[in-house]
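Lab meeting, item 3. Inverse folding demo.
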């Protein structure tokens, strides 16, 4: 992140973090899934959060006072209740960070993060689980993106509500959460179109997608004057 120290291979070579920050006077610095970081990374961040300065391996100082620093972390979902979508901001009024958090959550955080690091945070935001209505919106957006890609191949895709219902429900039943929507579209739905295009024998350019109890079904939609019988891809 800050470069190799003097005497080591890679000294004065580009550092992944500090060399990027040198060219920016302000911004957002995001550390995703921070609980997976080595303790040395947390020690490095202690100085940043306290002084607003980061020193690289060559001794150059980078001022980060105009940066917003955000950590994300995945902790046990059982700590959250299935209420409305959003963030719950927890800031101590007495000056002790995280004092209004449930003690169990506090203990869980301390198994991953140094207490000194937690005490330097201005706020902790708990992101609650997505509700079914929000999952449906995400699923609809993903399907519409698929529609646009198919339009480039002159294929019109329609779908019924059973597709969205299934994609949203699959998220709630899978540990992959929202990623399950993308997985279903990429691994299950898209191959149906590939299979259809490979065996396509008609002039149909409109396809309808639906979900039965067991599988997705793709059906060509023909114009009224077409004498072809309906074909189905499963």
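The presenter then showed the designed sequence:
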């Amino acid at each position: 992140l800050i470069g190799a120290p003097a005497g080591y291979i890679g000294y004065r070579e580009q550092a992944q973090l500090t060399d990027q920050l040198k060219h920016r006077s302000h911004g957002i610095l995001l550390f995703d899934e921070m609980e997976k970081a080595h303790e040395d990374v947390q020690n490095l961040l202690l100085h940043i959060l306290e002084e607003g300065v980061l020193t690289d391996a060559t001794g150059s100082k980078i001022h980060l006072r105009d940066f917003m620093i955000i950590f994300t972390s995945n902790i046990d979902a059982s700590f959250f209740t299935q209420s409305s979508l959003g963030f719950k901001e927890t800031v101590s009024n007495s000056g002790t960070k995280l004092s209004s958090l449930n003690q169990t959550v506090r203990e869980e955080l301390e198994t991953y993060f140094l207490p000194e690091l937690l005490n330097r945070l201005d706020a902790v935001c708990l992101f609650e689980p997505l509700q079914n209505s929000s999952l449906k919106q995400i699923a609809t957006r993903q399907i519409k993106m698929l529609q646009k890609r198919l339009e480039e191949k002159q294929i019109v895709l329609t779908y019924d509500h059973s597709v969205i219902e299934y994609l949203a429900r699959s998220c709630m039943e899978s540990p992959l959460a929202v990623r399950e929507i993308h997985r279903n579209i990429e691994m299950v739905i898209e191959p149906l179109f590939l299979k259809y295009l490979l065996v396509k024998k008609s002039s149909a350019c409109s396809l309808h997608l639906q979900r039965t109890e067991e599988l997705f079904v793709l059906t060509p939609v023909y114009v009224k004057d077409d004498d072809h019988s309906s074909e189905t891809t499963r």
